[in-house]
Amino acid sequence: MHKLIIGNWKMALGYKESVTLAENLVLSQPYRPLLAEVGVCPSFVALSSVANILEGTAIFWGAQDATQFVPGPVTGGTSLESLVELDCRYVILGHSERRQLFGETDELVRLKLQAVLERTNLIPIVCVGETLAEREAGQAEEKVGGQLRAIFNSVVVPAGREVVLAYEPIWAIGTGKTSTPTQAEAMHHFIRQFLKELGIEGNRILYGGSVKPENAGQLLSQPNIDGLLVGGASLSADSFWSIVFA
Ligand code: 13P
How far apart are the C-alpha atoms of 73 and 185, rounded to whole Å? Predict the structure, then answer.
């Protein structure tokens, strides 16, 4: 399976900046064989325009979140169906910023995952990760295992459907502190084994948290790191392509 490199633009860019970045990505794609699968997740307001720019290129696109509700009276919501209409390939679920800033729980992430699998062909990218306090207390695996157990509880992953996991230690997001490749590899191995015990196999497991061109190659060379979820360093075309070709 190809490595998967996703740029999560978060809310860092306005509409016009997002369009410019999408155009720059297309214009500056290196003339080298692209061995990884590459995608970007712009904000909702920019998604349609970015999709138009990326259509027919090697870059896929997706959303940073969605509601589990079917289209209807849900003020401020974004339905999975509308993401399908925009030919999104991915939807990120349960990012730690959604959990911290919007109070999303494992149970809500579970409902969203179930909705994605039942109603769409989108590839869900399910985020998990521990806080610094949990890591320092030696509870990182317990936290991540608990999240996986709760999110996948009674969720049926149909044969042939891929659920991508993203391990994003909260202490490494936007802080410049990256998990060492060895630390990340150990957690990825744990996640893979844990999912196997839940009967879920064949997942790509991405690492996220202060990924930069300088550390991407080493992270990607770990056997259980199947790709990267990149925040800040995906906001410039040059730096994103350097990571893809790391
Ligand atoms: P940074 O790469 O900015 O640390 O963000 C990581 C992240 O949260 C990607 O989803």
Answer: 43
Strand partners, 167: 128, 207
Q: Where are the domains of the chain?
A: 3-244
Is 30 close to ligand 1, i.e. is its CB under 6 Å away? no
Ligand 1, atom 7, residue with closest C-alpha: 231
**How many beta carbons lie within 10 A of that of residue 141, not counting itself?**
16
Q: pLDDT digit string (tens) for 11-35? A: 999 999 999 999 999 999 999 999 9
Separation between Cα atoms, residue 163 and residue 113, nearest integer Å: 9
Q: In the CATH hierarchy, which top-level class contains the domain 3-244? A: alpha beta
Ligand 1 pocket residue status of 210, Cβ below 6 Å: yes
**pLDDT per residue as tens digits for the range 100-151:** 999 999 999 999 999 999 999 999 999 999 999 999 999 999 999 999 999 9
Indicate if ligand 1 lies below 6 Å from the C-beta of 209. yes
Contact by Cβ (8 Å): 150, 189: no
Rounded Cα distance between 141 and 222, Å, is 18
